[in-house]
Amino acid sequence: MKDLLILGIESSCDETAAAVVRGGREVLSSAVISQIAQHRPYGGVVPEIASRGHVEAFPAVVSEAMANAGVGWDALDAIAVTHGPGLVSSLLVGLSGARALGQAVGKPVWGVNHMEGHLAGMFLDPATPPPEELCPALVLLVSGGHSYLVEMRGIGDYRLLGQTLDDAAGECLDKGANLLGLGYPGGPVIERAAEGGNPAYVRFPRGMEHAKAKKTENGLDLALCFSFSGLKTSLLQRLKTHPDDLPGHRPDLAAAYQEAVMESLAVRADRALKLTGAKTLACVGGVAKNRVLRAKLEAVSRRRRATLRLAPMAYCTDNAAMIAAAAGLRARAGLPNPPALEADPSLPLVEEAEDFPA
Ligand code: KG4
Ligand code: ZN
Fold first, then answer.
1. Which of 162, 169, 205, 340 ranks highest by number of CB atoms within 10 Å?
2. Which residues line ligand 1 (CB under 6 A)?
């Protein structure tokens, strides 16, 4: 399959993005309009504001991506758009915009799974070997809506090893930041507030710390699953019982909270590397931007003699380059890209969890 030139479009949450990528790896342009400022007063994403924001931003990001790529519409092979998972009212804006564009310029419009997009993000680092050389890889996929440990056997061939049983890692940071009066989104503000703080100030619980060789209902090993809702409750308790902690100990609390989240993630990644013997550990998704997590995963990989591959900073949080990359990599691997027909807010990455031999 030749290297396709693809316009990617992403609107699953609160970022409106468009990008042009060749062959699933070479980014010609990437434009992102973030709505963080509009949602900040509410401490989280407000779906109605998000969909209106997408409608307003869509023409501008597409024009910017096409202009910066320096290619004409004729040169494109396809348009790839996120069709799930995400907020349905947000997904629909990107999907209908992409389909209208496709009709106007006479190009096919493909639907991309947002989570597969995050996985493709790691291949946007030119130093990362192509999927056929890199895989099998163990991937920690950590975003605002999902936390997965995935065994990536190749493009389109994913086995879910672990997932969160409640809140996602990013969601836990977002909720914690709210409790600490730090604003939104939580990950970056906690990271900034934690600088100079003492991560050992309080030992917040690491969810599922003592789980061993038990399985979830869908057959996943609990020792590879995450739980973050107890952490948020524990912070709330701490603030109630220690009213003097704020504002003076805010950096310490932020550092301790961040430490608990990142250590939970790193411990599971370590266990999964040990169990699978994988030689590559990758980390993608918004939380992969976190420097404490990056350092912990470096240490884990060194201990397990695995190579660490991280999505480039710009392609960790939501963007359209990863969406175009996913479609381009599927095409390169000879896999079909489905037509973008409907938005599916709960589109799964993997249909069924396979039994994992412990
Ligand atoms: O992948 P993403 O942009 O959107 C989803 O698909 O959910 O991830 C957004 C999440 C948010 O929860 C945000 O707090 C978190 O990524 N995040 C971070 C950092 N930057 C963004 N978490 C930790 N450290 C960061 N520097
Ligand atoms: Zn995302």
1. 169
2. 13, 143-145, 170, 173-174, 185-188, 191, 285-287, 289-290, 317-318
340: how many CB neighbours lie within 10 A of its CB? Answer: 24
Instruction: Note if the pTM is more than 0.85.
Output: yes
- Buried-exposed string 208-241: b where 16+ CB fall within 10 A, e elsewhere: beeeeeeeeeeebbbbbbbbbebbbebbeebeee
- Ligand 2 centroid from CA 114, angstroms: 6
Question: Distance, CA 73 to ligand 1 centroid (Å)?
Answer: 32
Of 116, 124, 130, 169, give the one whose Cα is nearest residue 146: 169
Q: Which domains does the chain have, with CATH numbers?
A: 5-120+316-332 (3.30.420.40), 133-310 (3.30.420.40)
Give the Cα separation of 106 and 344 in Å (integer). Answer: 24
- pLDDT for 208: 77
pLDDT in tens, 116-159: 999 999 999 999 999 999 999 999 999 999 999 999 999 999 99
Which residues are within 5 Å of ligand 2 (an ion), measured at CB?
Answer: 143, 318
Is residue 294 helix, strand or coil?
helix
